[in-house]
Amino acid sequence: MKKFGKKTIALLMSTLSCALLFSSCGNSSKRSTESTEKTTDPVTITFYTWEKTGYTEQQDNIVKAFEEKNKNIKVKFVYPTDNNNADYLQKMNTTLMSSNNDVDVFGASGASSVADFIKAGVMEPLDSYIKKEGVDFDKTYSYHFIVDNKTYAIPTFETTWFVMLNKKLLDEAALPVPALNWSWDDYRMYAKKLTSGTGKDKTYGSYMHSWPDYIKMGIYANNTSPLFYDKDKNLVVEKPMFKDWMKLRFDMETVDKSQVPYSDVKAMNLAYRTQFFNGKVGMLATGAWMVSEIQNVAKYPHEFATAFAPLPRFEDSKEGRTFGDSHYFGVSKNSKNKDAAYKFLRFYSENRSKIAPLTGFTGVKNQDKAKIVKELIGTNEKYYDMDSLIKVYNNPKFEVNYLKNSSDLSDVEKQTQDLVSQESEKYLMGAQALDKSIQNMLDGYKKIKK
What three-state secondary structure class fits 264? Predict the structure, then answer.
């Protein structure tokens, strides 16, 4: 998510803020009136998103259902990019710098990117709209990202993480689908047994991508904040679990040779989807956005079925806990139709999985995920091990560890993430010892906090 190769907009914050300032000086009175007036005259709102291929028909269905109930509001989807959130963020930076842009609704694939938009002053606080509507946000949604005690964005698509497994390779290795409470030791054993061949013909048991998520993955289950430091701002790299996690990854790559080497991932710029769907790896830890992509055999040709398991855990970790994020969308500060934009955004967020199940799970609580999965997959069940997929989502111990407050997304956290990722990379590529990497993290963190 997705992590999805996120890029922040911190460098453009000052420019955006200036553009917003000039706009607000001349139009504050007008916008104030517009935001409080009821929408009576027909208006058209624009919804900027990167979710295009595989989504447009479904989103058109949502618009149709909304417009039938709201005759005075028309909705236009605008796609600056095609399923590429990083490019979308860059293009939105440029668009939002213009004070006369037509953006009404926009968002990003995760909390950190949305936080950058909010800090730049280009998103409208939604608290007054939520209060006026009378909706209980925390009873309605599973995700609630708060910035300076305010709500700016609504979750529209959850990106919880799990492990996908090549069922054909599992069967060939005489391995059952992993249990819901499997451990990282189990994962390592599975990776060994799923590895075969040599050279270009080699199939690895496991693949972990280059994102920071894979550096943090082993500590998410115990650390209740999905970041590199705990609630007391102590680096979690001091805890034995982080060291155990990094050593597990290193040993799988260099001792067992059952995981694609990190050096190959970086040097060859490997694509995780290609690695999995080409049958080159047996297991891939990834997120919910991949569920719909499995059946896209035109883009990712394959014949095998995909099985599912929760993220593994260490023995002393809480069972069922995973990490995740959400796509968040909000109303543009410069929107001339804020009430209408909010109204559609609420409808979109609550009805997305009902009207357009092919778009996946939303951030709404108490979804019938088994039903959504079946509608999402349709007639393509042969590409899925349905039993394991439904078990993962219906796990009674399932718990998502997600980012809840922007105070955890300070510049200190971003610099810390870069520091930990860089030092971890040196270790994984054999450039320095693990103890040296951890000490460098601790020393660097002290400097960052000053």
Answer: helix
